[in-house]
Amino acid sequence: MIGYFKNIYQVAAGLLKGLRVTLVHLFQPAVTVQYPYEKLTTGERFRGALAFHPDVCISCDMCVRACPSDCISLEAARNEATGKKDLHWYQIDFAKCNFCRLCEEICPTKPKAVHHTPDYELTFRDRSEFLVRWTPEAPQPKASEPGQIWSRFLTRGQKIVDRQGKVPASSTPSKPVA
Ligand code: SF4
Ligand code: SF4
50 φ, ψ to 5°? Predict the structure, then answer.
């Protein structure tokens, strides 16, 4: 009989304990982030989407050699007039990238020609879209607002779609969420 009432007491105490937590949080401000209308700020060293600046890159190949996933490739040719290498294209296979930052750390330019951004909204609708290529002729971004980095990244780079080099309509960068 004592065990019966003890059992009832323990269940009631547990119930009240749970309800107390509910009541405490009922009168506190909500902490749920209404994504995608609201977004959390990422840490200073967050490793988001990689951005590349063809105007800064000196085609030294160091990032290509440092990348453990073998996902960076580039083509450049020596310019006899300037004595420097002219970049033709720079490419990252995001299907292989593990976001390790080694390419950024080894890059000798200041500012870094390749670097992570705080942008974590990476979406690819097709396997071939993982391959992103930048060329010096591609339009350079003007905006610098947080949250638009990925669309700027897409503007700067070009998604490669097939072996014929055709770019699909789906590679058009979508508008960032306001
Ligand atoms: S972050 Fe790492 S895996 Fe990705 S491209 Fe750079 S070096 Fe390669
Ligand atoms: S991104 Fe940096 S490390 Fe890579 S080739 Fe260009 S300058 Fe060299």
Answer: -80, 140
